[in-house]
Design goal:
Oligomer: single chain
CATH topology of the largest domain: Rossmann fold
Low-confidence stretches: 1-5, 87-101
Mean pLDDT: 85
Largest sheet: 5 strands, parallel
Radius of gyration: 23 Å
CATH architecture of the largest domain: 3-Layer(aba) Sandwich
Number of domains: 3
């Protein structure tokens, strides 16, 4: 006969996933591959996991987010993780195991499961539902940015394969492209030229920026990723946009990035406002406006539009 007081210390894999932010799929893979987390099988055949393992698994998630490989940290004890990362707060065993994660986090984990299953129909339908519910700005800031970060961490810790990461990127790209193009229809007046610098292979940052920019009154001219410098300059000269927007990831060489932006600025004779975002954007660079996040980008665009002589 099972003793109630002992069973109260165990939870289902779904509850463990909810409390740690690690998907059930990943937990099962880890248990099979590394023997951690360990489970107790009930007479019914269902598995239950000890609540006391929650702080350790949260520490594992933080270690993975810092760049450690799953094989190194998943089997580790809380003390070993503390020694590895030097994070004293991970040793706090008074963490409330019943602490709930947000509804947005739960939605992101549902999307990760659909990515595991290569279920593009369900994934895109769920994107559409949340878009309608949240609106474009909150969809990008509260859901899409965290999802892309979560996919990156999933790939780094071997939870997601390269195929699954590519599948997710294609789904997100097609969805965001369709949305900003719908918002960009039949616009007249001032224009926004959007591109990345030569050598840039990351498209999602620019697509999210296009969604935010499409909320303004500006008409977007979208050149996409890896655009030759000469084409950016010639398009800007011919189309005369009021704003030139770049998304710059950390894969680009910082010195090359500064040199290219300076060349663009000089060629355009500083007649076009340049705004850049992304982890590779130079800090304190005189030729550009640097934006840290999409909320700030939206507010910046509102103020920029107010100052335009053509603003309605």
């Amino acid at each position: 006969m099972t003793e109630p007081n002992k069973m109260e210390n165990f939870i289902s894999i779904g509850e463990l996933a909810r409390l740690t932010g690690i998907t059930t799929h990943t937990l099962r893979v880890w248990e099979k591959r590394y023997g951690s987390p360990s489970s107790k099988r009930l007479p019914s055949g269902h598995r239950r996991y000890p609540k006391e393992d929650i702080p350790r698994l949260r520490a594992v998630a933080k270690a993975l987010g810092s760049g450690y490989r799953a094989s190194k940290v998943v089997p580790g004890t809380l003390e070993e993780l503390h020694g590895l990362m030097g994070l004293q707060h991970l040793m706090n065993k008074t963490v409330n195991p019943d602490q709930k994660i947000s509804s947005n986090d739960l939605m992101i984990e549902r999307w990760i499961k659909l990515i595991h299953d290569f279920d593009d129909d369900a994934l895109l339908q769920s994107f559409h539902e949340k878009w309608i519910q949240c609106g474009p700005l909150k969809f990008i800031v509260d859901l899409m940015v965290p999802l892309i970060e979560r996919i990156g961490k999933g790939w780094e810790c071997d939870e997601l394969t390269i195929s699954q990461e590519h599948f997710a990127t294609e789904c997100i790209s097609s969805f965001l492209t369709s949305k900003w193009r719908q918002l960009n229809i039949r616009k007249e007046g001032w224009t926004i030229l959007m591109a990345t610098l030569p050598g840039e292979t990351q498209s999602l940052g620019l697509l999210m920026a296009a969604v935010i920019a499409s909320l303004s009154g500006g008409k977007i001219i979208y050149l996409g990723i890896d655009t030759p410098l000469g084409d950016i300059i010639s398009t800007a000269i011919n189309q005369k946009p009021e704003l030139l927007c770049f998304s710059i990831s950390c894969i680009l060489n910082p010195l090359d990035t500064e040199e290219k932006i300076l060349r663009i600025s000089n060629e355009l004779k500083n007649e076009v406002t340049i705004i850049c975002g992304g982890k590779g954007t130079p800090a304190n660079f005189p030729s550009i406006n640097k934006i840290e996040d999409f909320n700030l980008f939206n507010k910046w665009l509102e103020k920029f539009e107010e100052k335009l002589p053509t603003a309605v």
